[in-house]
Each structure stands twice: as C-alpha cells, then as structure tokens.
Specification:
401 residues, alpha/beta, 5-stranded parallel β-sheet
Length: 401
C-alpha cells in the first residue's frame, strides 16, 4: 500500500509525520505501508518569515526528519493527478517524467499570491509570497543604496492592509535604514481598498495596529486601490500618484492550481471542499489539507484560514486519516477550536489575540517575544529523532494554543 503526499509545506510535513506515527502505533512496517512525500526540494520554507531581511535563511531541511521516520522523499513537481487511475505524474528537475501510483493521496499543495491584471504589476511589483520572491525583493532593496536619493528611492508602497501587508510594512522602516543609513528619509505607505486597516481583526486589535503604524511612521491610503505601476511609481484608483521604486503586492492568495485537477467542488479561493475527516467528497482516496482545503474547524461556522497555524493541524489529521483507512482503523474528525494571531509590528512590538473575535491578550514587547518564539521555534520541524518526531504529530495536540 502506498500513501502519497504532495507538498512539503506545513500541512505536507505534518501529514507525513502523522501518517508515520499511526503506522508505528499500529505496528505496520514501511513495507506494509509506504509513505512518500513529493516536492521540488526536501525543504520547509518558513513562509510566515519571508517579510523579514535575509529571507534565504528562513528555510529548514526535512530530509533527515523524513529518513528518521521512514518516509520516502521523491524529488520533483507533481504536474498531473489522475484520480480514476490513482496516479500522480511527477516532473523531476532532471530526467524524464515518472508516474507514481497511490492508494491514498493527500493534497497539500499550498497557495500562491493572487496577482490581478493590473498594468505594470508583473513588471514592477515585488512580493514576499515565495522564497524566490522574497530574495528578489531583498536584493532590490540592497540595490537601492547604489541609486540617487531621488524619484521615490526611499519610498515603499505596500498594496494590501491585511496580515502580510502590515508585517511587511512595519518591518520596512528598519530594513530601509539598515540599507540606506540612519539618516535616510524613508517613507512607507499601505494602500488598501477597504476603509479600515486590518478589516478582519476587529476594533480592539485595530486600534493597537493603528497606533503601531503611527509609531513606526507607516502611512495609509484606505478606500483606494492600485490602478497602475510604471517606472515612476504607483497610481491609485483615487488618482493619487506616489513616486516609488518599490511596490510590494500583498493583496490576497489563492490555492495552488493543482487543486483544479481534482474533480470536486472548490471555493472562491480555489480550495477543495472537504468533509470533517478532510476527505474530498465524491473522489475516492483523496484527502486535502492546509491552503488547499476549505475545512470546518468546529460546529459554530468557523472555517480554517490559509495560515500555518491551521495547516499544521489539518495536515496532521489528513495524514492520520489517510493512513488509518489503509490500515483498517477509524478516522478522526478534524477540529480546531483554539485560534490565535500574533502580528509583528516592527519596532512597535507585536499584537497577540485569542479567539475568532480577536480578543487582545498581549501587545508591545511581550507580544514581540512570543512572536519571535513562534517564528524561530514553534513552526520549525521537529528534530530528526524518530520518537520525538513521531510524538510531535499527534493530531489532537498539534497547534494547541
């Protein structure tokens, strides 16, 4: 029997760990149940940290962990899924394509930045969505020091006033001063079509965010969107033109396109609709988790967000359940009632909230300490020690906060 997991992000990593954990508990061997993880590289990109400087350092190797728990790593990109034949076609970096059969499939292909057809966005826009994007932005920012301090060189416009946009914007003044010098007249502007910053965070959290933006010197242009980009800067839908050499697009994500090959329902974000055990209804043998799935967290109408907090736990349940079906054991319904946010606010510290109503629990330096611990410890892979790694993947305990 073979269980195939596509994707080495947070959901894919925990799907592999959890499936291996159940296999071990039930006394099955790697020969009885082969678990294979497919991805271009055996690396976890710590995506929540890509807004920071030196993004090339925010990755973690997975090969030693996978070897420790007897999960086979298959290098390559999954290009085609045939759910009737139960096969995945894989394109390696070198060599011919190969076809991998599966008995159960877990789709954890993550998400991609949504880039609308705005004039000039493809040519002039940057992002912190992927490792390559973040590295390109970091290289561009360092290159600014070689240019004259004119024509918006010291100005950065961030399109998107949500979580990612706020973290990128509040980090930017420090990054710019480190590159351009402490006396540089830096300017950072968040642009968002909503009439309030962080529209999903609620009034209590929003007041903290607004004060932090003032403290670090980040401006906002609300109720306006980006209409066009060119060599001189960005033009807003309000007609305002902001001179800048750096525009960071942070205005929404969509599920990776591979989900479109599964013959099932998807939501407006391209996520596969799954049942409480994270199976894709009507498609035999297929599970989905992380940003690839729309899953109910509870019976109160809350659904998992496209975040690593939800991806890790969803991945653990999906991997466990896929393995459970193959080994003849009951599946477990996914549930995740606890929900927290920890928003980095640059030199203003951070904001920690709890619950779907975003009740503020910590702000400033105390929240910043928690944010650092989350970013550098909590979301990293476990050590490559078999017992420790398997124990970390108990679905009922993953991402308990």
């Amino acid at each position: 029997m073979r269980l195939v997991i596509i994707g080495a992000g947070f959901a894919g990593m925990y799907a592999a760990l959890s499936a291996a954990r159940l296999r071990d508990i039930r006394g099955a061997s790697p020969q009885d149940l082969q678990i294979a993880l497919v991805s271009p590289e055996p690396t976890l990109v710590v995506r929540p940290r890509l807004y920071q400087s030196k993004p090339e350092t925010v990755t973690a190797p997975l090969l030693d962990v996978l070897e420790a728990i007897d999960v086979d790593y298959i290098q390559g990109s999954a290009e085609t899924i045939n759910t009737e034949a139960r096969t995945v076609q894989i394109t390696p970096a070198k060599g011919p394509r190969k076809t991998l059969s599966y008995d159960r499939l877990v789709v954890t292909t993550g998400s991609r930045l949504f880039r609308p057809n705005i004039p000039g966005l493809a040519e002039h826009g940057f992002s912190v969505d992927s490792l390559d994007d973040a590295v390109a932005l970091d290289k561009h920012l360092h290159g600014l020091a070689e240019r004259p301090a004119a024509n918006g060189r010291d100005t950065v416009v961030v399109a998107g006033g949500g979580f990612t946009g706020i973290e990128a914007a509040t980090e930017m003044p420090t990054r710019l001063r480190e590159i351009l010098g402490p006396d540089a007249k830096t300017r950072v502007v968040i642009v968002d079509r909503n009439t309030a910053i962080a529209p999903d965070m609620g009034a209590g959290a929003r007041s903290v965010i607004e004060e932090a933006l003032r403290k670090v010197g980040v401006e906002t242009r609300l109720g306006a969107g980006v209409a066009a980009l060119d060599d001189t800067g960005v033009t807003l839908s309000s007609g305002e033109h902001i001179e800048t050499e750096t525009v960071i697009w942070a205005a929404g994500i969509r599920a990776a396109p591979l989900t479109g090959q599964i013959p099932a329902e998807r939501d407006n974000f391209g996520r596969l609709l799954v049942d409480r055990c994270l199976q894709v209804p009507g498609v035999q043998g297929v599970f989905a988790a992380g940003d690839a799935a729309r899953a109910a967290c509870d019976d109160e109408g809350n659904y998992a967000l496209m975040s690593c907090q939800h991806a890790t736990r969803m991945g653990a349940f999906a991997g466990n359940n896929a393995a459970a079906e193959l080994l003849g054991f009951p599946t477990r319904p996914y549930h995740q009632k606890a929900y927290v946010t920890c928003l980095d606010l640059g030199e203003a510290g951070a904001l920690f909230t709890r619950g779907w109503e975003r009740k503020v629990e910590m702000v400033g330096d105390l929240a910043k300490k928690t944010k650092r611990e989350i970013n550098t410890v909590w979301i990293y892979p476990p050590k490559a020690e078999r017992a420790l790694a398997l124990a970390s993947a108990d679905p009922e305990r993953v991402t308990e906060v």
